[in-house]
Amino acid sequence: MAGQIHTRLAELGIELPAPSAPAANYVPYVVSGNQVFVSGQVTVWNGELRFIGTVGAELSLEQGIEAARLCGLNLIAQARDAAGGDLDKIKRVVKLGGFVNATPDFTDHPKVINGASDLMVEVFGEAGKHARFAVGADSLPLGVAVEIDGVFELG
After folding, report:
1. Which of 69, 71, 82, 88 is nearest to 7 (CA)?
2. Rounded to whole angstroms, how far apart are CA atoms 12 and 54?
3. How confident is the model at residue 1 (pLDDT cuts 50, 70, 90)?
4. What is the DSSP secondary structure assignment for residue 10, as one 8-state letter?
5. Are 77 and 44 in contact (CB under 8 A)?
């Protein structure tokens, strides 16, 4: 559907990937009442794994930020699916939870997750501002640099 958010994405030159299928015994999202809980999204672009490695070692801070942005694109793609294809039904981005595969001495986890947070504000404006956490991990599934889950409100 070509609504306001779809138009904003086009104006920003942002393409959303196809929503990824779950890799195990879970669903990509759950709609409960007016909230959409999106499962953790990793750095996959249309089936291709990207940003494999550890931030602070094989990957730079800037690459970590790009990885988080990719996770954010996947979150939006899942939320669009949950909203029946109409991103204008997303009333608010409620919360993001970010995990960064990082070296023990890396301390810029919030800067990495800003890649997704900034994307949410770019796309949804004021409604994109959300609660959040950003933590480090010594490994993530498939060796990816970042994994982020999210909660969206439907209106």
Report:
1. 88
2. 29
3. very low
4. H
5. no
**Joined tokens for residue 78:** 């899942």
Token digits of residue 6: 């779809």
Amino acid identity of residue 146, one-letter, is V
CA 58/CA 73 separation, integer angstroms? 23
CB 36 within 8 A of CB 154: yes
CB 55 within 8 A of CB 44: no
Q: Does domain 4-154 have CATH number 3.90.980.10?
A: no
CA-to-CA distance for 153 and 155, rounded, in angstroms?
7
pLDDT digits (tens, 9 = 90+) for 43-100: 999 999 999 999 999 999 999 999 999 999 999 999 999 999 999 999 999 999 999 9
Residue 52 carries which side chain, given as an amino acid letter?
Answer: I
Which residue type sits at 121? V
> What per-residue confidence (pLDDT) applies to 2?
65
DSSP codes, 37-63: EEEEE-SEETTEE--BS-BTTTB-HHH
Q: What pairs with residue 37 in β-bridges?
A: 30, 151
Cα distance between residue 125 and residue 143, in whole Å: 32
Report how far residue 120's alpha carbon sits from residue 116's, in angstroms, rounded to the nearest whole number: 6
